[in-house]
Automatic annotation (TrEMBL):
Belongs to the pyridoxal phosphate-binding protein YggS/PROSC family. SUPFAM superfamilies: PLP-binding barrel. Its cofactor is pyridoxal 5'-phosphate. This is Pyridoxal phosphate homeostasis protein. It comes from Myroides odoratus (Flavobacterium odoratum). One of its GO terms (molecular function) is pyridoxal phosphate binding.
Length: 242
């Protein structure tokens, strides 16, 4: 239990340091706890330590932990790959933001479902900035077109962009991913689309949050550095099919 609290403290220090080093207000950067594989009892400790923004990768995991955490009123975001056949389920668990909108058919089906429920949803457009085939996200060159199309679906409130940086120890390879996302954000802002805010940049994880903050992250998604190593490779959790 102490570990989780200590780890959170340390992550908040890292965020603060990175903000100060880049002339940013630490208030501009939200910490999202990436809680895949973490049991509800451990997530509870993190929430009790003051962290209320959670992100899961699989509907099944939200479902399993939902009731156990309900009394703490966390804010639930969805950060995993979303299959269209799971849209119905995601609306059952008051997820307030989906970070992983990466194709029009997904956005359209989500819009249809939301329309029938008379609901709206905040979304981020996920961009595959590292161009790795194994990763989800719209190709950078197609991102603006997708943003314009999704902007026409009035139940979806586009709040910004999300990316997973290149897995590398080489900063010189990671940084361009985040710069690219920022760049797409600027271009999208210049379109002045109705229904599009383009305020959030969800980027940076345990290993690269300092670089992401330097490049403008407003949400960093941290799992390992708070909860410890996971048993399964991340690719397993990025595919809702499995
Ligand atoms: C697991 C995960 C994270 C957190 O990664 P860590 O390296 O454990 O901090 C962030 N974003 C997404 C989409 C994830 O699946």
């Amino acid at each position: 239990m102490l570990h989780i609290q200590e780890n959170i403290k340390y992550i908040l220090q890292r965020i603060e340091k990175a903000c100060i080093a880049n002339n940013r207000d630490p208030q501009e950067v939200q910490l999202l706890l990436a809680t895949k594989t973490v049991p509800a009892a451990r997530i509870r400790l993190a929430i009790e330590a003051g962290q209320t923004l959670l992100g899961e990768n699989k509907i099944q995991e939200i479902k399993e932990k939902y009731d156990d955490l309900l009394d703490l009123k966390p804010t639930n975001h969805f950060i995993g790959h979303l299959q269209t056949n799971k849209i119905k389920d995601i609306l059952k668990y008051d997820v307030t933001c989906i970070h992983s909108i990466d194709r029009l058919d997904l956005a359209t089906k989500l819009h249809q479902r939301l329309t029938s429920k008379n609901k709206t949803m905040e979304v981020l457009i996920q961009v595959n900035t590292s161009n790795e085939e194994s990763k989800f996200g719209i190709a950078p060159e197609d991102a603006l077109a997708l943003i314009q199309e999704v902007a026409q679906l009035d139940t979806l409130r586009i709040k910004g962009l999300m990316t997973i940086g290149l897995f590398s120890a080489d900063e010189a390879q990671i940084r361009p991913c985040f710069q690219l996302l920022k760049n797409i954000q600027q271009q999208a802002k210049e379109l002045h689309l109705p229904n599009v805010e383009m305020k959030e940049l969800s980027m940076g994880m345990s290993g690269d949050l300092e670089i992401a903050i330097a490049e403008g992250a407003t949400i960093v998604r941290v799992g390992t550095a708070i909860f410890g190593e996971r048993l399964y490779p991340d690719s397993y959790y990025w595919n809702e099919n499995k």
